[in-house]
Design a protein that fits this description.
The protein is an all-alpha fold. The protein has 4 helices and no strands. It has one domain. The radius of gyration is 20 Å and the shape is elongated. The protein starts with a helix and ends with a helix. The relative contact order is 0.16.
C-alpha cells in the first residue's frame, strides 16, 4: 500500500471516527448536565418551600428550551472538529477533549447562571 493510499484511507476514515467519538461524548455530556441540572432544580425547589413562594423555578418550558439549546450547541463540537480537518488537514484527536470540556463548562456555567437568577428571585421572598 503506497503512501497516497494510506493518506486517502486515513482521510476517508477520520470524519467517521471523529463523529463516533463525539457520539460517546454526547452521552457523557447529557448525563453530566442532567445530574448538575437536577441538583440545581432540587435546590431551588427546597428554597421555594422554605420561602413558601412558588416562583416557577420548575417550569417545564425553560428546562426544555435549555435542553434543546444545549444539545444544539453540542453539535458545534463535531462541526468544528470536522471543519478544521477538512480545511486545514489537522486531526484533533487529543484536542477533541479540550473542545468538549470547554463546551461542557460553558453549559454548566449557564445552568449556574440560571440557578443564581432563580435564587436571587426566591431570596427576595425569604424572611
Amino acid at each position: 500500500m503506497g503512501e497516497t493510499e494510506l493518506h486517502k484511507q486515513w482521510t476517508e476514515n477520520y470524519p467517521k471516527a471523529a463523529l463516533q467519538a463525539w457520539t460517546r461524548l454526547w452521552i457523557v455530556y447529557n448525563v453530566v448536565l442532567l445530574i448538575y441540572g437536577l441538583i440545581a432544580l432540587g435546590t431551588l425547589r427546597l428554597l421555594e418551600r422554605q420561602a413558601r413562594h412558588d416562583c416557577g423555578a420548575l417550569d417545564q418550558a425553560p428546562v426544555l428550551i435549555f435542553g434543546i439549546v444545549a444539545n444544539v450547541c453540542f453539535c458545534l463540537g463535531p462541526l468544528v472538529e470536522c471543519s478544521i480537518f477538512i480545511l486545514l488537514g489537522h486531526r484533533m484527536d487529543r484536542n477533541r477533549y479540550v473542545l468538549f470540556a470547554a463546551g461542557l463548562l460553558f453549559a454548566m456555567l449557564l445552568i449556574y447562571a440560571l440557578f443564581m437568577r432563580g435564587y436571587v428571585h426566591i431570596s427576595g421572598f425569604m424572611r
